[in-house]
Amino acid sequence: IASSSMSLSETGLINIIAQHERSIEGIVNSFPGAENPDGRPNAPAVLHIGSGFSCRPSAHHNRWRNYADIKSFLLVLPRDALGGKLSNLEPLAIPYGERWRRRFQDNAVRVQIFDSVPNIIDFQFSGGEYRPDIEHAGITWLGWEFTFSVEVLEMDDSLLQESGDGNYLLTESGDALIIE
Questions:
Q1: Which partner for 73 in 42, 47, 124, 151 could form a disulfide, CB atoms 3.0-4.6 Å apart?
Q2: In terms of pTM, does the model score above 0.70?
């Protein structure tokens, strides 16, 4: 996902998030990055987009703090299902917010994510919004919009290691440099 050749990949981040979403109770599928279906998916299903990124130089020439935001759109059921009555639909959709929160606040999940992304500095499950109006494939869906934010330190031809004191140790040709 991130390497010494400046390669933060939103698709790779989506794949890691989707892997954990697939283990949430009730989820039929969480699609990999850049593989959202064109038609009606078997629901509940999760679609993804890389909704934005930003870059900031960090400490030295060609060293970057790259930030990416990933959106997961959970499609629980079409808005017109069960006669379109929210009193019938919402009890099926609303519990997913808590399921996402529990999954992505779980320490074991966070450790796996940090172990999966080289040079990750921060991973945040930024929040979720219940949505009765998600449009996909000409259908209005009831579901959730979840946001994830990731920060990765990337550099050219260097190796980054955590120093254990909240700083990062950058090694270049046998030299060491502390990055805060």
A1: 47
A2: yes
